[in-house]
Specification:
Elements: E1 9-13, H1 17-28, E2 32-36, E3 50-52, H2 59-67, E4 71-74, H3 81-88, H4 97-103, H5 106-115, E5 123-126, H6 129-139, E6 143-147, E7 157-160, H7 166-172, E8 178-182, E9 188-196, E10 202-204, E11 208-213, E12 216-222, H8 228-244, E13 249-257, E14 267-273, H9 283-286, H10 291-299, E15 312-319, H11 326-330, E16 335-339, E17 350-358
Parallel strand pairs: 1-2, 1-4, 2-3
Antiparallel strand pairs: 5-8, 6-7, 6-8, 9-10, 9-11, 9-13, 11-12, 12-15, 13-14, 15-17, 16-17
Helix pairs in contact: 1-10, 2-3
The structure holds adenosine monophosphate.
Length: 369
């Protein structure tokens, strides 16, 4: 594939903060962006050349959008398969629709990982309540029931501490097609943001440690405190996933680190996100090439940038009212504020983030504050 030269136009499906930061990175390389999004509010469109506001099912609008760009990408994974198919008749779609289809369904995602020898929590399909009872016998409790589709930030999930709770869990997730997973007694949650270029080369950022509050990412510590061999293993797992998918672009790979007592392999994959990832926001200020620029480079057929970290960082999400503290953060030495331009600070809504930078090897310890 020939590289897309500066001056080209990138189509982005979705108008939220990830699209916004992709569009800003694209602008830095001389590209224009065209955002496609059904929502009334589209923060990405504030920083892009064009906006098409239309439903994802509007075949005419999709075709016109794809005809106006050199490549189509997306900032979230719940793009209907038919939408991706229509777009791909008019422009290259990167990452390819197959990766999207696999990652947007927890059953196909976990099955794909298993078939490629990548460790996950034990899991089983739950199509009807009887499946759940059978699966719990096999997997045991505690377990987590998760809807196959549209789950994020802990939505569409119910914990099952004892088998008697199965029926209530099935109700809680809305009786939707699901999987049940064994509960992983992890030591820490880490993630790797990895990129794969059009030439098949990969570049992984350092593994980071993530802390969640109410199932929403609260802070990312870069790097995760890991023995070098373990950090290499995490990067290698992420690189293998993108290679097996023949993926082009940036992917977030969420992993559980098991306690040392778990034995030989301590890493299991929880989830793959076929897009730039919240746990990669630290790269905006602690690496020469951010995950956003890296994604633009990959989908445009450019050489990948160096993922090396020049600083340590702690990324804190500004959720709901936290963004009201912008003035104090702006006055703080070593802090870089990023706000997403959202009008209303609803509880649980990601309004922005702040990257606090530290010299290499000097980031503060992880706290559960
Ligand atoms: P997910 O939506 O799959 O990323 O899950 C959201 C959060 O729930 C994860 O970040 C974990 O903290 C927790 N979680 C998900 N799956 C499991 C599991 N199998 N065992 C233990 N905790 C889990």
């Amino acid at each position: 594939m020939a590289a897309i030269a500066p001056g080209g136009t990138i189509g982005i499906l979705g108008g939220g903060q990830l699209g916004r930061m992709l569009a800003m990175a694209a602008a830095e390389l001389g590209f224009k962006c065209h955002i496609y999004c059904p929502d009334a509010e589209a923060q990405a469109a504030d920083v892009a050349a064009r906006l098409t506001r239309a439903p994802y099912e509007d075949a005419v609008a999709l075709a016109a959008f794809a005809d106006s760009v050199d490549v189509v990408t997306y900032e979230f994974e719940n793009v209907p398969a038919e939408t991706a198919r229509i777009l791909s008749q008019h422009a290259p779609v990167r990452p390819a629709p197959r990766a999207l289809a696999i990652a947007q369904d927890r059953l196909t995602e976990k099955t794909f990982l298993k078939e490629h020898g990548i460790a996950t929590a034990p899991f089983a399909e739950v199509a009807v309540p009887a499946d759940l009872d059978a699966a719990l016998v096999r997997i045991g409790t505690p377990a987590i029931l998760k809807t196959r589709r549209m789950g994020y930030d802990g939505k569409g999930q119910a914990k099952i501490a004892r088998a008697e709770e199965a029926a209530a869990a099935w109700e809680a997730i809305g009786r939707l097609p699901a999987i049940v997973e064994g509960f992983v007694d992890f030591e820490r949650e880490i993630s790797v943001v990895v990129a794969r270029g059009a030439d098949g080369g990969t570049a992984a950022y350092d593994p980071v440690e993530n802390l969640h509050t109410d199932h929403i990412l609260a802070r990312t510590y870069a790097p995760a405190a890991l023995a070098p061999a373990l950090a290499d293993e995490a990067r290698a797992i992420a690189a293998r996933i993108v290679a097996e998918l023949d993926y082009v672009g940036v992917m977030g790979v969420e992993m559980f680190l098991l306690p040392e007592s778990a034995g030989a392999s301590r890493l299991t994959v929880n989830e793959i996100a076929p897009r730039v990832h919240n746990s990669g926001h630290w790269t905006m200020d602690a690496c020469a090439v951010s995950q956003f620029e890296q994604h633009i480079r990959a989908i445009c057929g450019w050489p990948l940038g160096d993922p090396a970290r020049h600083s340590d960082a702690v990324m804190t999400n500004l959720i709901g009212d936290a963004a009201a503290g912008w003035a104090a953060i702006a006055a703080e030495p070593g802090a870089k504020l990023h706000l997403y331009g959202k009008a209303e600070a609803r509880p649980g809504r990601k309004m922005g983030h702040v990257n606090r930078l530290f010299p290499l090897g000097k980031r503060p310890p992880v706290t559960s504050r």
